[in-house]
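ugh ok so i messed up the first submission bc i forgot one of the chains. this is the corrected input, ALL of the components this time, i swear. 717 residues overall. if the numbers dont match what u have on ur side tell me asap before i send this to the collaborators (the ones from the other lab, u know who)
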Amino acid sequence: MILRRFFILFGLFLFSFSCVFASDHTSGNDIGHLMTTLVLQLAIIVIAARIFGLIFSRYLKQPRVLGELVAGMVIGPYALGAFSIPILNQPLFPKIDAVLPISPELYGLAVVASIVLLFLAGLETDLPTFLKFSGIGSLVGLGGVVLSFFLGDMVAVLLLPGVDSFMSPTALFLGTLSTATSVGITARILSEKRKLSSPEGVTILAGAVLDDVIGIIILAIVVGITKISHSGGQVEWGKIAFIAIKAFGFWLILTILGILFAKKISKGLKWLRSNDAMAGVALGIALFLSGLAEMAGLAMIIGAYVVGLSLSQTDMADELRERLYGVYQFLVPVFFCVMGMMVDFSLLGSIFIFGLIYTACAIVGKIVGCGIPAFLAGFNIKGALRIGAGMLPRGEVTLIVASIGLSSGAIGQDMFGVAIMTLLIASIIAPPLLIKSFDGGNGLRNQKLAREDEIGCRIQLNFPSVHISDFIRMRILQAFNNEDFFVHRLNLNSQIYHIKKEDVFVTLIQKNRGIELTTDIDNKPLIKLIVAEEILELKDLLEGVKDLDSPDGMCEDLVYGIFSEDKK
Amino acid sequence: MKKILKKLLTEDTVFPDMTANTKEGIIVELIERLAANRKLKNKRAALKAVMARENKMSTGMENGIAIPHGKSDEITELVAAIGRTSHGVDFNSMDKKPSRIFIMTLSPQSHSGPHLQFLAEVSKLLKDTETREKLLNANSSRDILDILL
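and heres the new structure output, hopefully the right one now
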């Protein structure tokens, strides 16, 4: 029923837009025509991405991004978008006969979206957690990257005709595609199961940071090798080493500079005294460094990621994320939808079996590659499986790598389809596997690891009603705000807040009548003082209610006459 | 975080020779001394705010420490003070022991600034018995500042 309504609406939109488009089409104004096409395409993309995203998240209980990808496949140049619309006299998404099947304008928009995405991914990075668990996290991340890269590259060499070397750009891209983890889905599931701060949870998060960094550096190296290969040059080990050093050096220098100057940058941004201006300038810096990275022969997303990573350590990180949420909400569905549009269905049949084998290797690469180091580091089989499953989902980085591979000619439409197939399958099977794996007991052989997790302090409070709990929660958040903390609500569906100021970090969770605050043991006195003061305010409020003369009479006065004639 | 202490505490706001013998006397004396050192303009509003907070619940803590504090719209900026007596004063403290160290903050009602963070930072330092002893035996404001900063 809902799908039928959607397609009727979709048809009506196409019809009305095509009328407008037809009138402009005759005007002969090239740039106007180009922009009109872009705007109409965007309109359809935004609407379709939203509706498919909603259907996937609400009815199919799948991540929204999968719906957005599928939306792109449905409306793209290889499906509905290819049909010529009568009044338009051409398809809305005509297949462009170039390396990419979509227009440069749309691809440009997707590139900007990928920069925003990676900037925000950098901003979300929990560097202290990563550093705290960096030992095991590094091993887990590295294990997953190495094994999945090797398997992805090997499958290409063994099964793809024309690919005869591990160093062939196609094999390298398929190896790189296999490495990237998108921990967003895992983080959401672990957060819902309240396992985000478990030894498995923090190891996954730390592993994912390393995974991102290594994945992005590998991408830079692979892009460099591909460029040499395509310009007819001989790919030599010396040149590869040079590219690797350049990529790693660029990342390392920028990251060190970023972290060293993060406080100064943050101070400079705060000088603007406007949170919106602060976010705008920060995004500008990310775009600028993305351009610099590209000029240095690396992938743009490295620059964006490094700026995000550097600013993630400042107290304004959550504020920036919140301010850029609107840009993210608009651009990211467009990005996933545009990526979906590049899937050529006609090629999927011929590479379906290869795609399945490749996907299986990508899954095995992560579960075994991350699981073995986790097992060796003190987790039991259950814990190792949890960590492997948590590292399974693929997302934006896979798509960005695939689109870079496609635009550089290193991979064709068929392998792009394989990337999307892997992303869809891995992201669909990961959540149930992860949820199931967390059933049952402890995931540790080595109990020393568990104690590392108990360094923090937790204050739990229970109130007689949700209203009182709401009141106290609002008061506590206001009190933190008054103390110059940045307060950030994680999402609109739950009462989870991150509260930050310089090196103080507090998490507040309200669940029905209960409020829980967690922080480092060092900050315990502050939390206790703030909560105590606000409970005293509640006492004041209750005293005040007692002083209310006649609440019943006040209510009667207010509602009297609403069902009778106004006699003035 | 020590920079909050550095920002708010100076020799003008540390009083090692308090003389009052009662809870209200200590609060009045701290406010009077802050005003005398031009750290506070509206003494009446400050006293009213601190006493209002004391009436809700005493701020006498443990181990001879009390943290009288208050918020008022008539206070324009966050002010902190530390007082010390050579004798114990009944501050209706949680452990029923007399108090000798008094940490006060006065802040605007609407945008208080880090007044509780200041108190929390001081509490972290004074949790340590040795630091408390040093503070009780310090000879001057400067010595107290050297112990805390």
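quick check: Residues 23-28 of chain A have pLDDT under 50 and may be disordered. that seems consistent at least. Chain A touches chain B through 18 residues (CB under 8 Å).
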